[in-house]
Amino acid sequence: MFVDRVKIHIKGGRGGNGCVSFYRAKYITHGGPDGGDGGKGGDIVFVVDSGASTLMDFRYKRIFKAENGSDGEKKNRSGADGADIVIKVPAGTVIREAVSNKVMADLTQPGESRVIIKGGRGGRGNQHFATPTRQAPRYCEAGKEAKEYDVILELKLIADVGLVGMPSAGKSTILKMATNANPKIAAYHFTTLSPNLGVVRGNFSRDFVLADIPGLIEGASEGVGLGHDFLRHVERTKVFIHVVDAGAIEGGDPVENVRTINAELEKYNPSLLERPMIIAANKMDITGAEENFDKLKAAFGPEGIKVFPLSAVTNKGIDKLIAEAAKILEDYPRDIVIFDEDYDEFVDEIPEDLGSFTVTEVEKGYFLVEGVGVEKMIGYTNIENEQGFAFFQKYIREKGIVDALKEKGIKDGDTVRIYDLEFEFID
User: Fold this and answer.
1) Given this model, what pLDDT does residue 220 score?
2) What is the predicted pLDDT for the residue at 226?
3) 3-state SS string over 369-398?
4) Closest CA to 42 of 147, 113, 132
5) Could you report the per-residue pLDDT of 204-222, keeping only the tens digit for each?
6) How many CB atoms lie within 10 A of CB 118?
7) What are φ and ψ of residue 288, in 5° steps?
């Protein structure tokens, strides 16, 4: 079964907690702090597997969680880092964040890898919080949580030339005759329910990949039928070959059929019509096909689109068609179409509110204030000069830190620690 779109849940590993510990040895009863740091949580990594061609494996497993980091230990021993989760996907997989639908990564090259979620940072042990005035800190940092997402994996086939057209126009037969592919072919509508790929080899400038995109119908760009499922596979295609039933076996006007397909391509992605196009007037062995062939040339020739007569069943005219596609590819200036990443919130931990903080009484008369915004403020403020200290006092009052300390029961003369800064509280 060909599966080209799945939704999965991914979560990075949480960082391990720091350790509170004090050195103990014979004749040493009051050693210094030696609590180790927690280990880093595991990452979520996507890797292109050259042996994979579908997302079918994700039908059975849809939740991926990296290993948490281990807690720190005594004697300054850090906890082990959590193991990464490596998720293998086929080339051409686009990873989107499910809520915003923004592109997180577009993986197109064999062996290419991308870290989508970084594991949480490990917490620091109490050895980091010792100061000349407080040599026995009895607290440490907790490990940080990592991000988690629902993500959409979309496989967009990587092909040089794409065969597009109405159902039963003969695309699968052309693919079979021109390449080593062996698609299922039958005389009924929508016989091709998934894209097929083949490699064209022969007396051309180079080998290239030819794709049979399942039959499109009017309304495909709005999702009619399996429109969206099929259209996503034309986005990386460099050259389009419109396969038309010139014999009109199924009825309809071949010229209008081409215009219908072009209209659906334009609605789905207007840039698709900027790519080179060829028309393959198939089933020329049918009575009346010559007249339709002339109509196609009259309608599209002035637009610079070449029309080639052929009969896929008898293999007549296919070589000239493929030679023209190879000639266009030889001068084609662009490589594989890559989707720009537009999801820019990749940080080591979950984004925290810069205005939030916590106040903890770690022991009687000793209070710890933590928060991203507070830490940043300490980092860029020179507390040693009068102006900087005044700003610091104003900041902790305006942010509600002083009020929060009072709610915790702080009294004049108690000690407050904000990261590497310790001071005596005086209201």
Assistant:
1) 43
2) 44
3) EECHHHHHHHHHCCCCCHHHHHHHHHHHHH
4) 147
5) 666 788 888 775 654 444 4
6) 22
7) 95, -5
Report pLDDT digits (tens) over 263-322. Answer: 888 888 888 888 899 999 998 988 888 999 999 999 999 999 999 999 888 888 988 998
Give residues with Cβ within 8 angstroms of 407, minimum separation 6: 359
pLDDT surpassing 80 at residue 76: yes
- Give the residue from 208, 210, 175 showing the smallest Cα distance to 191: 175
Cα 30 from Cα 35, distance rounded (Å): 14
More confident residue, 22 or 353: 22
Give the pairing type, strands 5-11 and 63-65. Answer: parallel
Q: In what order do the strands lie in the sheet with 113-117?
A: 85-89, 44-48, 113-117
- Burial code (b: 16+ CB inside 10 Å, e: under 16) for 242-268 equals bbbbbbbeeeeebbebbebbbebbeeb
CA dist., res. 296 & res. 246, Å (int): 9
Contact status, residue 361 vs residue 425, Cβ threshold 8 Å: no
The C-alpha atoms of residue 188 and residue 168 are separated, in whole angstroms, by 7
Q: Are residues 305 and 311 in contact, defined by beta-carbon separation less than 8 angstroms? A: no
What is the pTM assigned to this prediction?
Answer: 0.65
Name the one residue in this structure whose structure tokens are 């994996």. 153
Work out the pLDDT band at 8, boundaries 50, 70, 90. Answer: very high
Residue pair 188/168 in contact by the 8 Å Cβ criterion: yes
**Is the pLDDT assigned to residue 28 strictly greater than 60?**
yes
